[in-house]
User: Which sequence fits this backbone?
């Protein structure tokens, strides 16, 4: 027992050192996280889509594969974000992954590259995946709630500091795409990164610090009865860049995920 504790402490020290190399002062890319005190305010986001699709036209004729869906997203103009973005940011990683990581929406770097989590938050996410789970980004699947960069000023996609959180309308317009991605991948587990993804996917209105540390059942039966999906909420990597003290909690959340992936259950 003592040896196990010592080994866990050593693992955590390695993780913290690895993350420390990535941590430095960095402005939060969007709005500040809601504090626990405001957690009971009505949710600004649309409720989780009830069992069944939000956009029936998409599932009557499901896309033959993810490439078709990616093409559809690339041409999407369902909301204003589609007109302003440089690149749609569909998702990246393995379609066979048992876990899908879901962030809020692309930022400047992602808009330029067309890939989620490629900026500083993304580098930190890669480190977390590697040090706690022993996984590369290509071995999991990573996507966002909205696929296009929400900008304060859509006229200036080249400007830095132009990020903002997606609006409820933008989230509603984009949500069917994420559902289609999840249907195609059929993950056992979704990790929500930060308050926005957590509120949207769980349909609850509580700050991330109040909901993390345990798992939830995904409220939508995407694959029908008997195929539950677990949701593990954790902090957005950008929150760790702002507040390195959060990396310990993130470690605990990732350990929960690791144990679920290895044992198929969460205690
Ligand atoms: N933050 C997000 O929520 N998603 C990204 O893809 C990048 C930063």
Assistant:
């Amino acid at each position: 027992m003592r040896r196990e504790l010592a080994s866990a402490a050593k693992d955590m020290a390695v993780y913290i050192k690895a993350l420390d190399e990535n941590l430095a002062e960095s402005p939060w890319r969007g709005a500040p996280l809601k504090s626990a005190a405001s957690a009971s305010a009505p949710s600004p986001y649309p409720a989780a889509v009830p069992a069944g699709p939000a956009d029936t036209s998409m599932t009557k004729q499901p896309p033959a594969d993810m490439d078709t869906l990616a093409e559809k997203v690339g041409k999407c103009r369902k909301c204003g974000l589609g007109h302003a973005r440089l690149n749609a940011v569909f998702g990246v990683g393995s379609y066979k992954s048992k876990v899908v990581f879901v962030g809020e929406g692309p930022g400047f770097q992602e808009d330029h590259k067309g890939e989620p989590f490629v900026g500083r938050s993304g580098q930190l996410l890669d480190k977390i995946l590697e040090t706690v789970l022993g996984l590369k980004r290509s071995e999991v699947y990573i996507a966002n709630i909205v696929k296009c960069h929400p900008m304060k000023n859509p006229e200036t996609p080249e400007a830095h500091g132009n990020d903002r959180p997606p609006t409820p309308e933008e989230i509603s317009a984009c949500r069917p795409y994420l559902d289609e991605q999840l249907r195609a991948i059929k993950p056992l587990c979704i990790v929500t990164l930060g308050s926005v993804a957590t509120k949207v996917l769980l349909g609850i209105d509580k700050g991330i610090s109040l909901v993390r540390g345990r798992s939830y059942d995904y409220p939508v039966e995407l694959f029908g009865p008997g195929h539950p999906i677990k949701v593990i909420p954790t902090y957005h990597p950008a929150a760790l860049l702002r507040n390195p003290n959060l990396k310990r909690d993130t470690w605990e959340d990732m350990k929960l995920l690791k144990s679920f992936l290895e044992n198929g259950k969460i205690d």
